[in-house]
Design goal:
Elements: H1 14-33, H2 39-61, H3 66-93, H4 104-111, H5 131-137, H6 139-142, H7 147-179, H8 182-198, E1 223-227, E2 237-241, E3 250-252
Antiparallel strand pairs: 1-2, 2-3
Helix pairs in contact: 1-2, 1-7, 2-3, 3-7, 4-7
Length: 253
């Protein structure tokens, strides 16, 4: 049976690949420029790791829960924001110069993804390169002996990763609003299956691949398949508003 919703595939996303660069470079940065006994080292490495790992976990969770996927991507986004502040603090506390967004060095770092796949419509997608090949494109900054250059380059990469995550989160939120979450999609598939068994010769519009749960006639929210537990309709299925108990809108099947 085909999976209702795809999951995984995170290794080919630009957000995960950029977060991997940030994680690896943060480990090397801390090893070279910070006291290994410092608590800051643990915090920076864990923040970088959280940014990467939560993208992967959210991708795997997408098969059964849109909310979990969104929550984990937001955790990844928050972790990278924490790491961004750590690098900014590193520069400020040591009175090292921070790059401005429009300076030549920052523009050069931001331009690197365009070299990954020049023939693709999305130049931020580096999916055809290995981790080592992608890291090599940034080696002139991330392997530099000057900690200020490394820190500034990593700040640019974190901003890129955050931009990609913001775009990914916005797309997921739009899909959830328009198509519902896993429970609504599962209910629609279950209803289509039952109708097909009960009326095998009748065409069923709910069995169409792009069929979405109905919207509540009272509040406009998506509805989910429910089964009455008591009363004269006990055991009968119906569409109930997903905002219940705040909204008690229903529809007959």
């Amino acid at each position: 049976m085909k999976k209702l919703r795809p999951s995984g595939g995170y290794r080919d996303t630009a957000s995960f690949q950029t977060a991997t660069l940030v994680y690896d470079a943060t480990v090397w940065f801390c090893e070279k420029f910070l006291d290994p006994r410092s608590r800051t080292v643990d915090q920076m490495v864990q923040a970088a790791r959280s940014g990467r790992q939560n993208i992967a976990e959210g991708s795997r969770a997408s098969a059964t829960s849109s909310q979990t996927e969104l929550r984990l991507l937001n955790v990844a986004r928050a972790s990278l924001e924490e790491l961004l502040l750590d690098y900014e603090d590193f520069l400020r506390h040591r009175r090292l110069q921070a790059w401005t967004p429009d300076c030549p060095e920052a523009r050069a770092v931001r331009a690197v993804p365009r070299t990954f796949q020049k023939d693709q419509s999305d130049p931020s997608d580096p999916s055809d390169l290995t981790d080592e090949q992608r890291a090599a494109r940034y080696a002139r900054w991330l392997d530099h002996a000057d900690p200020a250059i490394r820190a500034n380059a990593l700040i640019c990469l974190i901003h890129q990763a955050n931009f990609l995550l913001d775009r990914q989160i916005a797309a997921l939120e739009k899909d959830f609003v328009e198509g519902g979450g896993y429970s609504e999609q599962l209910a629609t598939a279950r209803l289509a299956h039952r109708r097909k068994k009960d009326q095998p010769d009748q065409p069923d519009p709910s069995a169409q691949p792009d069929q979405k749960p109905p919207t509540c006639p009272q509040c406009g929210a998506l509805m989910a398949l429910r089964t009455a537990k008591s009363g004269k309709n006990a055991g009968i299925q119906f569409w109930g508003c997903t905002k219940y108990p705040d909204c008690k809108g229903t529809l007959q099947i």
